[in-house]
Amino acid sequence: RLVVEEGLNQLPYENVCVTTPTGHSYQGISFLRGNCGVSVMRSGEAMERGLRDCCRSMRIGKILIQKAKENDVDAKVYYAKFPPNIENRKVLLMYPILGTGITVLKALDVLRTYNVPIENVILLTLFVSPQSLINVLTRNPALRIVTSEIHPVVPSHFGQRYFGTF
């Protein structure tokens, strides 16, 4: 959840003043309209709860991408459903483990086909290998990434372990 919260800190906001039920004024902030989340199924869905806990009204899209084999360099998109006008939104792309970066590169390609500028995408991930970071940022230098750890060995089978199907 901490990675999701830090990702939310990267979104645009405005200062607002609200009046409390007791009649006092309180200065705070409010997110600007047009933010959304996109989870890369299935493991990215594990991060949705943290996003929902913080922002119940945020729209969430989904992308299903699978590789034929564990170390396959080609990924195929099976499903993509996004909130309307995603090209005008800031997108929190949720995918917890970056081992090679192939899946995220494919997800970014899908977002590009929907005219989403990479500058509007913030990748939220828990663990990243240095090689995947190089792979993703070489092709997408404007991408912002929020992660908890960069390590040469990243956990595998996150989605299966999280959902209890390992």
Adjacency order of strands in the biggest sheet: 5-4-3-6-8-10
Q: Give me the CATH architecture, please.
A: 3-Layer(aba) Sandwich
- Element order, helices and strands? HEEEHEEEEHEEHEEH
Based on secondary structure, the structural category is: alpha/beta
Q: What is the number of independent domains? A: 1
Mean pLDDT: 86
Query: According to CATH, what is the class?
Result: Alpha Beta
- Main pleated-sheet profile: 6 strands, mixed
Unreliably modeled segments: none
Distance between the termini: 23 Å
CATH topology: Rossmann fold
Strand content bin: 25-35%
Shape: elongated
Could you estimate the helical fraction of the residues in percent? 25-40%
- Quickly count the helices: 5
Please give the number of β-strands. Answer: 11
Please provide a written account of the structure.
Strands 5-4-3-6-8-10 form a 6-stranded mixed beta sheet, sandwiched between helices. The model has no long low-confidence stretch (mean pLDDT 86). It has a single domain, classed as Rossmann fold (3-Layer(aba) Sandwich), CATH 3.40.50.2020. With 166 residues, the protein is of the alpha/beta class. A hairpin with a 5-residue loop joins strand 1 and strand 2. It is built from 5 helices and 11 strands; from the N terminus they run H-E-E-E-H-E-E-E-E-H-E-E-H-E-E-H. It is elongated. 26% of the residues lie in helices and 33% in strands. This is Uracil phosphoribosyltransferase-like protein. Pfam families: UPRTase. One of its GO terms (molecular function) is glycosyltransferase activity. It comes from Schistosoma haematobium. InterPro entries: PRTase-like, PRTase_dom.
